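Q: Hi! New to this. If I give you a protein sequence and the SMILES for adenosine-5'-diphosphate, can you show me the bound structure?
A: Yes, paste them in.
Q: Okay, here:
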Amino acid sequence: MIKGVIEGSFHITGGDFTNAGIASSEVKSILTGLGISSDIVRRAAIATFEAEMNVIIHAVAGVMHYYVSSERIRVVINDMGAGIPDIEQAMQEGFSTAPDWVREMGWGAGMGLPNIKKNSDVFRLESAVGEGTTLEIILNLREEDLHEAE
Amino acid sequence: MTLIQIIEILEARVVFGPNADETEILSVCASDLMSDLLHFSVRPKAMLITGLTNSQVVRTAEISEIKAVVFVLDKTPEREAVELARQKNIPLLVTRLSRFTACGRLYSEGLRSCTGEDR
Ligand SMILES: Nc1ncnc2c1ncn2[C@@H]1O[C@H](COP(=O)(O)OP(=O)(O)O)[C@@H](O)[C@H]1O
Ligand SMILES: [Mg+2]
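A: Thanks. Here is the predicted structure of the protein with adenosine-5'-diphosphate bound:
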């Protein structure tokens, strides 16, 4: 049973590839600890990891907030950065503005936003050019997705 | 197939290898693109074959629940990658073989893609 809303947040620093993924990894273990089924945890972890990487690759700094209740997992990622001029284009599979050195590290395939959308039930992306980007994702939980945490 | 068998087939050296005799691998993905892995590595008990050696490879394995990582062409993973693998208990192997040969050997021994094709 999850009582009330469990929440927390992590700072994400643009360009910090050394610590890339720590926030998502923490969220993943928190969700696992709450007894949420592994399939949902995996989807949430993939979505938050791609979102975290987008801040690291494309923005200056950001914050990831998570809110978990017995009904849903909600994650909001807010960043300061260049923003996205054309969201429809950014959502296309394979579209990426990542530079070559990022590609050489294994990122910049242009599959991040589509992956996030695929793994969430609600996906909201808003951006202001020159200011920053806000991404909100929700994964709905059903009763059978929750089992007793150890 | 156990990780011990895979070590033999790939003539691999073990960088970090907890419980290699108990780790079961049922499918394989070969990629240097992290988002492709996050998109396609849907099968449980998958192993990754890659030419990238940075810590994000291990992080991606952790997030997508990939059970082990093999580095091809004798590439040694970076120190941060090994550290993270120890923390998260993800075995790391290095083979001198190319991707093509590594995949070919495992395919002919019966392993199939983590995408689920060709079963
Ligand atoms: N937080 C962000 N800030 C600025 N631009 C972004 C952000 N997230 C995504 N983008 C833009 O959208 C494009 C597509 O994103 P994505 O699908 O994750 O692919 P990738 O990160 O591999 O380039 C990026 O290349 C970038 O131009
Ligand atoms: Mg991305």
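A: The CA atoms of residues 34 and 57 of chain B lie 7 Å apart. Let me know if you'd like me to explain how to read the tokens.
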